[in-house]
């Protein structure tokens, strides 16, 4: 979806301005958000794997990330609260260059959460839940 959205924005920009050189840059900007989204997928997977009755908490985590991202500065939330959101670590491409450390870190956290969720799912008796 991010790839399609970035491509749509890039093609729209190119059709208005005639500058096709920005299409790849805008696609890259959209794809840069994927690691933050994958962390949220990892949270949902870990909850489903280990605490299936609390899977609804994944929606609460999503809502919390959304509120922090949209209203964190307006509500004057402390910096440590704003940095708890995985979206806070997504590079603001194309305004700044992408930091490989933040992208790799987010992907590592997402992978660990998904892996933990898969282990939890395999360990429990699915018929009992």
Proportion of residues in helical segments: 55-70%
Residue-averaged pLDDT, rounded?
89
Number of E strands: 0
Order of helices and strands: HHHHHH
The Rg value, from CA coordinates, equals 18 Å
The first-to-last residue Cα distance is 32 Å
Number of domains: 2
Low-confidence segments, given as residue ranges, are: none
The coarse silhouette is globular
Strand residues, percent: under 5%
How are the SSEs ordered, and which strands pair?
Layout: H1 2-17, H2 23-31, H3 34-50, H4 57-71, H5 79-82, H6 100-123
Features of the shown structure:
mainly alpha; single chain; globular
Give an overview of the whole structure.
The structure is a single chain. This protein is mainly α and 129 residues long. The protein folds into two domains: 1-31; 32-128, no CATH class. It is 66% helix and 0% strand. The protein is built from six helices and no strands. The protein has helices at 2-17, 23-31, 34-50, 57-71, 79-82, 100-123. Helix 1 (2-17) packs antiparallel against helix 2 (23-31) and helix 3 packs antiparallel against helix 4 (57-71). The longest helix is centred in the last third of the chain and has 24 residues, at 100-123. The mean pLDDT is 89.
Question: What would you say about this model in short?
Answer:
This protein has helices spanning 2-17, 23-31, 34-50, 57-71, 79-82, 100-123.
């Amino acid at each position: 979806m991010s790839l399609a959205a970035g491509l749509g924005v890039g093609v729209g920009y190119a059709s208005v301005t005639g500058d096709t050189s920005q299409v790849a840059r805008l696609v890259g900007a959209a794809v840069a958000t994927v690691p933050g989204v994958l962390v949220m997928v990892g949270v949902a997977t870990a909850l489903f794997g280990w605490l299936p009755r609390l899977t609804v908490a994944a929606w609460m985590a999503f809502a919390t990330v959304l509120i922090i991202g949209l209203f964190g500065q307006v509500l004057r939330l402390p910096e440590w609260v704003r940095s708890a959101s995985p979206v806070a670590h997504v590079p603001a491409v194309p305004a700044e260059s992408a930091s490989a450390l933040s992208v790799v870190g987010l992907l590592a956290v997402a992978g660990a959460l998904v892996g933990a969720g898969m282990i939890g799912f395999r360990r429990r008796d699915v018929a009992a839940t």
